[in-house]
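Appendix B: complex inputs.
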Amino acid sequence: VSGMIDLRPLLPAVLLSITGVVVILAQAFTPKGRSAPSALLSLAGLFGALAAVYVVARDARGATTGDSVVADDFALFFHVLLLAIGIVVVLLSPSYLKANHLDRGEYYALVLFSIVGMLGLVSCLELVSMFVALEIMSIALYGLAGMDRARMESQESALKYFITGAFSSAFFLYGVALIYGVTGSTSLEKIALAMGVLSPDSATLAVLGAGFLLVGFGFKVASVPFHMWAPDVYEGAPTTVTALMSAGVKAAAFGGLLRVFAQGLPALGSHWKPLVAVLAIVTIVGGNLGALAQSSIKRMLAYSSVAHAGYLLTALVAAPGIGAEAILFYLVAYAAVNLGGFGAFSALARDGREPLTLSDVAGLADRRPLLAAVLTVFLISLTGVPVTAGFVGKFYLFNAAVSGGWVILAIVGGLMSAVSAYYYLRVVVAMYMREPERDDDWGAIAPASALALTVSVAVVLVLGVYPAPLLALARQAAQSLQRF
Amino acid sequence: MISLGRHLLTALVLLPVAGAILVAFTRRGSEEAQKAIGLVVATAVFLLSLTLLSGFDSIPAFRSTAEMQFQELRTWIPSLGIAYHVGIDGLSLWLVILTTFLTPLCLLGSWSSIHGRVREFVILMLLLEAAMIGVFVALDLFLFYIFWEAMLIPMYFLIGIWGHERRIYAAVKFFLYTFAGSVLMLVAFLVLYRSSGLSTFDIPALATAPVDPALQMWLFGACALAFAIKVPMWPFHTWLPDAHVEAPTAGSVILAGVLLKMGGYGFLRLAFPLFPDAATRFAPLIGLLAVIGIVYGALVSLVQPDLKKLVAYSSVSHLGFVMLGVAAFSTTSLVGAVYQMLNHGISTGALFFMVGMLYDRRHTRTISEFGGLKSVMPWYSALFLLVCLSSIAVPGFNGFVGEFLILVGSWRFAPRLVVVATLGVILAAGYVLWMVKRVLYGEVTNDKNRSLPDLSPREAAVLLPLVALALFMGVASPYFTRRIEPAANNLIQQVKQRSRVVAPAPAPDADPARSVRSSRPSAPATPQERP
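Resulting structure:
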């Protein structure tokens, strides 16, 4: 239908953007001394967007908006995941913000805007649109990282994230430019077609362009050697924002990565796969060794997030179908675990303090047995021990690596998982086997936070025992990547 | 009796889990109720597992077929061909029953020695039981690995929370050692899955798939490492003394009684049938390491001043016999190996209980602190002596049957190794009897020992079943071995046929193991043909 643009694939993002604006306006029109119902509005928007995803999935599956945004199974899978992440983050936020005197409406608006960017990142079929989505997500996050203006660490976090973010954007753009130069298009579909028939000269340029794109994404997913920002940013940002970054940004960035490499550039696979394999190995090793040396739990989880980017990269070397399926499943498992992990710490926040070191959580199992048990489930899942989603996820990732012929990736990943057991278990040791070192003056867990934690732990355990339905969905979503 | 039919094994796995969930909902203070629920559930699991025996007997054809029994198969993760497949044969039957037998005894034995967090203790014991049963019944690699790894977590907590002074170090070391050893096995499973081309993780199905002999070496190596750490075989045993000594009594009993059996069982259920060529090739090395373990464990036991360490190192020695039997791979030696696994579970389990009872009374385990207990605690001393005699394989006790079968069955495999292994039998008599002399006999030299109470009824209730079983297994061994033997024969046939199919035998001088094997007239006991 020439001249008509199908806007339905944008529906969830549009709804969310409107909600963001409403949240800001509600804040502006609320009389001084009273607080606007920002969290409730945001939840309404997120659930509305989920409903929109349902409508799109029913009526407009596979539709595209002007060849640049698509509502295929892959995009829809990520939409549900990212919106769910948003819901959990919003549930965790009110009590944490109150405890840190940060209760302002902008926070929620920025969370919603960053999710809008994430939604775009996974559904763009065109590189310039994808860049715009990447920036929408990133700029909102710069603001979120610096929310706690009074704390130097938060300011540092925002600035560091901004500068490295700008760097990565530059790399990304340069990669787009080179690919455009070679193929004459920024559309992934046309790029994929053109890559099949390249002359040797332009192939070199195309590989260079792919390399720059990989660097750009490398910053966003925090893979070694582009990870230096992660520990400082994760540590300095408000903990709920860290949860959003580790779960949401990781998921969205891997979604974009799969779009570009598995859907747009599979023809160059023989060139970028060895690169990705090397990147995966150094990321797994670097992330885990870095985590070993940390005394702050938040920094440890930051390095662990680096390591997990490495595990996820291992599956990229497999055939697109198997690899993407494994990555999609793992992203869900990882999101649940990280939201739960950071969420548990944020839920204990009180008067600007929250548990950050091992001595802060020493003896936690005596005082809060349920919370300690829940945290243990998350840590065990991060280690990759059954019966958790983390185990099934790693099993699939390594299976993908082996099927791609890269047994070495599975070996490195497996051995480094054993190393990771040491630092994850250190937290468990502190909680269960050490005597408390201080009074339990942490905050009471708010009902909304308890709900978020319950959902997370349920997801981790259920996927650990019965992963088949989600795997089937992930497979279906992965198959839509092979459209070209 | 309850009839669960095909779901019996599933019920055995799920019943402890259900019990654990039930205990989780009890209030924190009601410790007696928590212990009682734990004991009742574990006893119920034991009784339920006994129905396996009648099921085994009621199928007359079974004794000659050695096929998997009580199988249950349902799809689980279809996209990778992963299924929930469980079943048992003669190799696993008794190990399942050993597990269900020891768990209630452990709960009863820890009745008064566990202080604090009783609820967590009971939950972990029950979850551990479920995982252990799961390992023995799993017939799918994925399922096997899940149970295999899931075992680690409860045991890690048992050592780390209720253990002795260096418990945290021991718990972390135990976890890291076994976890690191296992991940390579997981990679081996994945490679096997790819290279077999069968798109399944089903163990019986994969055991029919030909695997390239060169690749087999790597895969067998990866699995063997995981199992050798678990056994533990020398030189992978260094986690064992720490874990056994630092664990609470129940933890030590389960570790020695059941967890150490996982290694030998893994070799028999997975490593040998899946990688027959590599197994044949590695057998002499395994036999050598086993014998080194026998002698090394015995020598180190001789010089231990600490009772619990002595028992721990004696495990290294005893498990060496098991691995020698596995490596020799004849019907007699395999039956002996499985039998010895049961013996070790009973006699070493009982020893750990008795050391724990002494520790409860005196809060020390140093041998020189004791002496002359015979006159103070006559009942304890009598049972202690019986358990020790069982442990050193005196004829009439269970240990004798196992070690005898292993040594006889391994003679053709490697006479020189058997000669050295026999030395281990003598050394065992040495370190155990010397320890018995220092603890039980002589004058009471330490005043603190003068008024030690003898066994309480509860303690007697823990020990008597173990001692009775040790004696019963010593005199009525056919009752057990006739159920093991068909499965052992079946395994041998399976491995021999396949190692011939996959690779034509190389020149005899190139492979001593194979030449030994082929020069042997069939297995000592006539293998029964499958119908």
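The first helix of chain B runs from residue 8 to 24.
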